[in-house]
Amino acid sequence: RIVFTGTNAQNVTGKRDLWIERTIRTALIDEAAAVLVTSMPMCRITGAQYDRIIGGMGATRPVIEVPGHSLRGDWLDGYAETLAAIARHKELPRARRAKDAVALVGYLHDRNEGDHAGNRRELRRILAGLGLELASVWPGGGRWAELGDVARAGTIVSLPYGRAAARTLAERTGARLIETGVPIGIDGTRRWVEAVGAGCARTARAERFARAECRRLGARIGRLVPFYFLNRNVALLADPHMLGGLAGLCTDLGMRVRLAASVGREAHAPEELRTELGPGVAVLHEAPVTAFEMGRLRAAGLRETDLAIVPAELVHGLARQLPVVDFGV
Q1: Which of 42, 100, 175, 203 ranks highest by number of CB atoms within 10 Å?
Q2: CB-based burial of residue 155 (10 Å sphere; 0-12 exposed, 13-18 middle, 19+ buried)?
Q3: What whole-number distance in Å separates Cα of residue 73 and Cα of residue 71?
Q4: What's the half-sphere exposure (Cβ side, CA atoms, 13 Å) at 200?
Q5: Closest of 309, 312, 314, 311 to residue 325, by C-alpha
Q6: Confidence of residue 7 (pLDDT cuts 50, 70, 90)
Q7: Which residues contact 44 (CB under 8 A, 6 or more apart)?
Q8: pLDDT tens, position by position, 136-192
Q9: pTM for this one?
Q10: Dihedral sign of CA atoms 93, 99, 125, 160 in order
């Protein structure tokens, strides 16, 4: 639930402590296990002391301030900062760490729908193939209390959307920390499996599992590639952590990436992104919606039989002109 203070450029000045406290109390509905509080830059510069206001409320449930840095960051920075704030303040239960239990911290849970339930099932299956148990996903679409399951993880796997949160939790619990990329695409997932396996002293098992999975996938998709994917051009719009793996998947299926754009700052892009996209494909970072209007796609070489993989907000406008896959935020 989101509660807005109603603050604007006209009423931002003056004493607003009671107003802020009243808004926080409005957010403390019975179903809410915690409240996150943040501010826009115009409010922050007025010097409102959110920590003092929160400390004086006597709230019986966690109220956590998330620093607002929207003047120098983007939505990915905000997501990471939110996870980091929760990692600092979330009360963790006393639990004995299990050597084979793994927590994934920094998962991008952008909507509480079936695609993410499927992702979690697959991640659980992959880890089970290495002899590991998926104990916790931060965030995983569950209840606030379930985040406490991270306390029994012997290993924390840090995904790029929550590096600071993963480091904080590893320091708090004493768990082993492994930093990885996003497991997307055939090669990207293989690298992820091998990185987790190496970090958990399961290198040989991870390599065997990855080889078996690649053989299984090859047998299933090999007959489809010539008829559906081979030599098709594709345009991609995704966040910078996903973009390289998505491009690799398209290349593995025999498609040619002609245009790639990132809904995030270039600073978030991993170093290997350029090599994953291949020669001659420049990435447009912080791409506006107009970056994927049909004229630009045609200029990049896409035609009516080619493919665009884009966020949902662009699907309707492009679907009448070429095949579109709805992917990500």
Answers
A1: 175
A2: buried
A3: 6
A4: 30
A5: 309
A6: confident
A7: 68
A8: 999 999 999 999 999 999 999 999 999 999 999 999 999 999 999 999 999 999 999
A9: 0.91
A10: positive
